[in-house]
Automatic annotation (TrEMBL), chain A:
Top-rank taxon, per record: Bacteria
Domain CheW-like: from-to ranges: 649-783
Entry protein name: histidine kinase
Transcription found in the keyword field: no
Biological source species: Paractinoplanes lichenicola
UniProtKB/TrEMBL annotation, chain B:
Organism: Paractinoplanes lichenicola
Protein's name according to its UniProt entry: Uncharacterized protein
Lineage: Bacteria, Bacillati, Actinomycetota, Actinomycetes, Micromonosporales
């Protein structure tokens, strides 16, 4: 992708967010001129940068939005919620387009009509004047073959006009002339008229419109466009209209035939050349000889190449001139006294090439990245003194930070290798001094590596406001649709968490907020009847808690009725009759996290999309977090997500079974115990151990993983107690090792199916550690029993 | 650097954008008998073209770029062009 387009897309995302935010605030506080200005500026910037690319619909739509905002800004219009809706819809449409552009690098085919209806709506409050044209092709008034040539035709050389006219008369063809008079300030809009002219296909001639009087050099303003162009082209009117579609008011296009040009010539500078009829006859017979024309074209092309590549001189030049003259004669162009001058010859060759009807090649395509584009950024700086103030922030691609993190991980692994080397120095080579020196070196390296890791982690930290930013909009839209009045309160937006956590938090949060709005919050009438304030309140809170972050979504709605939940779960066969009786209220609320549970009597299009609360819990647990829900009937519900601050580094406890080492996330580990073999009892085919009066089932990890190991019945058994969903389980292992910080890599490729492992990590001694996914291990154990 | 400014000769290289126009004009203002080398120029901004039209420096080397050589160079050499008084409709 064009890097400029990529940058535009990246900036567009920010702009869209600020427009959204601004509009919402504006609706609440319509009088704030600073806010209006802010939104207007964002829309304006958007329009400006969209003009760099071939997205006319985008430019026109943003232009309409900008006009409306301008009217609001100047106080001519008061913003109402209908306008806000239209504006939001416009920017939503743009967001959709940009998503399409990101993958296809062009606007979707439906863009034109979709934009048109919105533009009409946006222009409505402005009195509907200057309704935008239907599509870009008709933006420029259509032109028919004109009888009379405009006066500006005289900007072309007479000689050239004459030869062109005679050719057109002979072939009964027409040619298009255009006059392009850019306005004076066009450089400030990052326009480059010459570049536009350069893109005109099959350009046959170019002339200049100079100012009537050039300003003296001392007062000359180089940023004022004073010149214009006239051009002649074989391209169709449609092509020209398309090319000049952004500046239709500055372009005049006429289509002329030979007779019209001659009338122009005779009118202003008589008389026409003699002996034309004879020449015409020759031209006709020869030009119809297509083969000859093609040969001539090839000669001309070769001459042009040789002229442009290495400006020839002397004998070579005259030979080139000779062949050009021959080719010109074959093409029927009037003979010209050829003086061996490189420039004149080059120009002549180009003219002849452009005129050659049997052109076997396309004209060179327009130059790739228009230089206009590069100019924009600085333009913005030049005419907008209020831009970019404040701290200098480096925008870095996420991938680079991820890569840095990986390297830190590898540095850690390499560093840990030094301790093994120190041991080897002592034991294998018997040098304790060397061993100690390596250890000293290690501790220095360790400190640096730790700091580096902390620094990189810090770079990856984002404030929770990133995850919260979409909710004002979401809640506004949903509450309007559901006809509920809801106020959103966010607290602790500046709490930081790793970007992966923030990103992964998005979907569960949206789901929870939707649930609150849809199921939790009552309509205003119901609330008033229940003695509550008519406006409901949803609170999003984030607080840091050690190496975890807690995000809470609370509402003051109707809460969850535990009896209703229990009955529903029973009806759906999720719990047995005994459980129906025995479940506590807290456990009952927890039932809604069971797969296949939905309390809404009616599935709505908001939250009832087939993903229930079980999906929320699953995705949070995948992040290594937990979800809990508390509810008071009639008072509201709060859902609490506890997530690790960072997912980059995982602390695992290393144990070994049958000589193979495995990692278990430390979060799950409760304790390690050694029990005499005799104390392990058996209840219903399940080994158990009694710990402090609690019966804990014990699973033989070797058997679950299908590894050849039998515990020594004489020795104490080592049992690792883990806690999963509040249940304790013992794992019978061979040996305990230490805890390590590892960078977990997911299982990929051929091993992706092995669900009992959550990933692999590299240890300091170069061994690969498999980290267990305890949930899967336990369900595997249940199956192998 | 798209613009190489020496004592008497300025070289326009590759794509000369609007950003270079200011320094080009400043150089043209202060240089007596300026010469401009266009050989390696692939495109010049309209502002640069306008500056060359106004200050009329000698073109010491012609551009190799086809469009510049065939269409723009003749304009610089003054073989074409009219004043806006004639071309503007009444």
């Amino acid at each position: 992708m064009n890097p400029l387009l990529a940058q535009f897309l990246a900036e567009a995302a920010d702009l869209l967010t600020s427009v959204d935010e601004g509009l919402l605030q504006l609706e609440r506080d319509p009088g704030d001129p600073e806010l209006v200005n802010e939104v207007f500026r964002a829309a304006h910037t958007f329009k400006g940068s969209s003009g760099l690319f071939d997205f006319p619909e985008l430019t026109r739509l943003t232009h309409a939005a900008e006009d409306l905002l301008d009217a609001v800004r100047s106080g001519r219009l008061a913003l109402d919620s209908g306008m806000t809706d239209d504006l939001l819809a416009a920017f939503d449409l743009i967001r959709g387009w940009l998503a399409y552009v990101t993958t296809h690098e062009q606007l979707p085919a439906t863009a034109g009509p979709a934009a048109q209806s919105l533009i009409t709506k946006l222009r409505g409050p402005l009195g509907g004047e200057q309704a935008a044209p239907d599509d870009s092709a008709s933006a420029v008034a259509p032109t028919a073959v004109s009888d009379s040539a405009p006066g500006w035709l005289s900007a072309f050389e007479t000689e050239w006009l004459e030869s062109t006219a005679s050719w057109l008369v002979t072939t009964s063809a027409t040619i298009r002339f255009a006059r392009y008079t850019p306005d004076e300030g066009c450089f400030f809009r990052a326009e480059d008229p010459l570049h536009l002219v350069r893109q005109v296909p099959a350009l046959a001639g170019l002339g200049l419109i100079q100012p009537f009087e050039w300003p003296p050099p001392e007062t000359y303003d180089e940023y004022q466009c004073l010149i214009g162009f006239v051009l002649a082209t074989r391209a169709a009117v449609g092509e020209l209209n398309h090319l000049f579609r952004y500046v239709p008011d500055q372009v005049e296009i006429v289509e002329l035939d030979g007779a019209a040009i001659r009338r122009h010539l005779s009118g202003e500078e008589p008389p026409p050349r003699p002996a034309q009829a004879a020449a015409e006859a020759v031209v006709q017979s020869q030009a119809q000889n297509l083969e000859l024309a093609r040969d001539a074209y090839a000669i001309l092309a070769a001459a042009q190449r040789s002229l442009t590549a290495d400006s020839p001189s002397g004998a070579r030049l005259s030979s080139v001139a000779h062949s050009v003259a021959a080719a010109a004669a074959a093409l029927g162009a009037p003979a010209e006294t050829v003086e061996p001058d490189v420039e004149a010859l080059t120009a002549r060759v180009a003219t002849l090439l452009a005129e050659t009807p049997a052109a076997p090649e396309e004209p060179p395509p327009a130059a790739p990245p228009p230089p206009v584009e590069r100019a924009t950024a600085d333009r913005g700086r030049a005419d907008d003194p209020g831009g970019q103030v404040g701290t200098r922030i480096l925008k870095v691609d996420q991938e680079k930070v991820d890569h840095l993190m990986e390297l830190v991980g590898e540095l850690n692994v390499a560093k840990n290798g030094l301790t093994f080397l120190a041991d080897a120095a002592e034991e294998e080579f018997g040098s304790r001094v060397l061993g100690r020196r390596i250890k000293d070196q290690y501790s220095g390296l360790h400190r640096i590596a730790e700091e580096l890791q902390a620094a990189v982690m810090d770079v990856r930290m984002l404030p929770l406001s990133v995850a919260f930013s979409r909710f004002p909009r979401l809640i506004r839209d949903l509450s309007r649709r559901l006809d509920k009045t809801v106020e959103l309160v966010t607290e602790g937006d500046d709490t930081m968490a790793d970007k992966d956590v923030i990103e992964a938090l998005g979907d569960p949060l949206v789901h929870l907020v939707r649930n609150s709005l849809d199921h939790g919050i009552e309509t205003s009438a119901e609330r008033v009847a229940a003695g509550k304030a008519p406006a409901a309140r949803i609170t999003l809170t984030a607080v840091a808690d050690g190496d975890a972050v807690i995000v809470e979504i609370a509402d003051d709605g109707r809460g969850i009725d535990p009896d209703k939940v229990k009955r529903k779960a029973y009806e759906k066969g999720l719990i047995s009759e005994d459980e129906l009786e025995a479940l506590t209220e807290t456990d009952a609320v927890d039932l809604i996290f069971r797969p296949g549970f939905s309390t809404a009597d009616q599935v709505s299009d908001l939250s009832g999309r087939g993903v229930g609360m079980d999906a929320v819990r699953a995705s949070v647990e995948k992040l290594g977090g937990t979800v809990t829900m508390r509810s008071q009937p009639g008072r509201g519900t709060s859902t609490r997500l506890r997530l690790p601050l960072s997912m980059a580094v995982t602390q695992v406890m290393v144990v070994s079974v049958a000589g193979q080492r495995f990692g278990i996330p430390v979060d799950l580990v409760v304790e390690t115990v050694r029990v005499p073999a005799a104390e392990i009892g058996r209840v219903l085919h399940q080994d158990v151990v009694v710990l402090r009066g609690e019966v804990v089932p014990v699973i033989d990890l070797a058997r679950v993983l299908d590894m050849p190991w039998t515990p020594d019945p004489a020795a104490d058994q080592r049992v690792l107690i883990v806690s999963l969903h509040g249940q304790r389980v013992g794992l019978l292992v061979e040996q305990f090792h230490r805890e390590v910080d590892v960078i977990l890599k997911p299982m990929e490729g051929l091993l992706a199916y092995a669900g009992e492992f959550s990933g692999t990590a590299l240890l300091g001694d170069g061994l690969v550690l498999l980290v267990l996914n305890m949930k899967e291990v336990l369900s595997l154990a249940a199956r192998t029993q | 650097m798209p613009l190489e400014l020496n004592e008497h000769t300025a070289s326009l290289i590759d794509v000369v954008t609007v950003d270079e126009v200011e320094s080009l004009v400043a150089w043209l203002r202060t240089t007596s008998k300026p010469k401009v080398n266009l050989r390696r120029c692939n495109h010049m901004h309209t502002g640069a073209l306008q500056a060359l039209l106004l200050f009329q420096p000698r073109i010491s080397s012609t551009p190799t770029d086809a469009f510049l050589a065939t269409q723009v160079l003749p304009l610089l050499r003054g073989s074409s062009g009219v004043s806006s008084a004639e071309s503007e409709p009444p």
